[in-house]
From TrEMBL:
Pfam families: C2-set_3, V-set. The chain crosses the membrane at residues 246-266. Residues 19-119, 149-230 form the Ig-like domain. It comes from Aldrovandia affinis. The lineage of its organism: Eukaryota, Metazoa, Chordata, Craniata, Vertebrata. GO terms for biological process: regulation of cytokine production; regulation of leukocyte cell-cell adhesion; regulation of T cell activation; T cell activation; T cell receptor signaling pathway. This is Ig-like domain-containing protein.
């Protein structure tokens, strides 16, 4: 009879201690992050999302964030090491709900890339990946009208400080895309930001509309900058007339000099 009583006591003690054991022994969990890439503004802040599922208390776990394999932040129970120039931090109060997201401040171009969120406790480990893209919106395009080419003109559109490399689109007054007729170049500056220059030759005989618009946007299409210029028909007429007048003056000047040239040649022959 005694062995049976001891067995009952053992079962009872186990049941009483079960809640305490469950709070000490960590359950299995998984670190999850958004599948879509995260974007953040140049010189601004961004949060790289990473959440434990189920939402366990991560205060007793080790959390490590790496960028392209290089550690940028590590949290161990009781301390938080910021080893990325003071640019990184976790949300300490939200660790208890499994939020192990990383806050990045004062974003640089070099902060772009693939990040790994790693969490482990005892023998259990999980990681998730976040891709960060830094965005910079460049200056409002500046359109200038350059020296005439024949009876037409050359429009130049310039804008600086873009990231990533944007696309530049020319349209005329009818809304027709004229980008294929333009010559556009993009260059990186010392800050790894893009500057764009585009030249478009226009002619009143072949191109319609008096409005010409230069639009620059990120290829995702979420941010745009644009400018436009208005050219009247009189402007083209004046351009053509000035070239015609200049040509007539040049011809008359040559004719005026011609007798003197003939006399000089005759004297040299004598």
């Amino acid at each position: 009879m005694m062995p049976f009583v001891k067995t009952q006591h053992a079962i009872l003690i186990t049941l009483l201690l079960m809640p305490a054991l469950l709070t000490v022994l960590p359950a299995e969990f998984k670190a999850l992050a958004p599948e879509d890439r995260t974007t953040g503004p140049l010189n601004g802040d961004v949060v790289l999302q990473c959440q434990l599922v189920p939402a366990l208390n991560a205060q007793s776990m080790t959390v490590v964030w790496k960028q392209e394999g290089v550690q940028v932040h590590q949290y161990t129970p009781g301390s938080s090491n910021q080893n990325h120039g003071g640019k990184t931090q976790l949300f300490q109060e939200e660790l208890k709900t499994g939020n192990v997201s990383l806050r990045l401040t004062n974003l640089w171009v070099s902060d772009q890339g693939k990040y790994t969120c790693s969490v482990w406790v005892d023998d259990w480990y999980s990681e998730a990946y976040v891709t960060l893209e830094v965005i910079a919106v460049g200056s409002t395009p500046l359109i200038t009208v350059n020296e005439p080419q024949g009876s037409g003109l050359t429009l130049t559109c310039m804008s600086v400080k873009w990231l990533p490399q944007p696309e530049l689109i020319w349209t005329d007054g009818k809304g027709e895309d004229m980008s294929a007729k333009a010559e556009t170049t993009a260059k990186k500056d010392t800050e790894e930001l893009f500057s764009l220059t585009s030249r478009l030759d226009i002619s009143p005989q072949t191109e319609g509309g008096v409005y010409y618009q230069c639009l620059i946007r990120h290829k995702q299409g979420q941010v745009t900058q644009q400018s436009r210029v208005q050219l009247s028909g009189e402007y083209f007429s004046n351009v053509s007339a000035s070239w015609k007048t200049g040509g007539i003056i040049l011809i008359l000047s040559v004719l005026a000099l011609l007798p003197g040239v003939v006399v000089l040649i005759m004297r040299n022959r004598r």
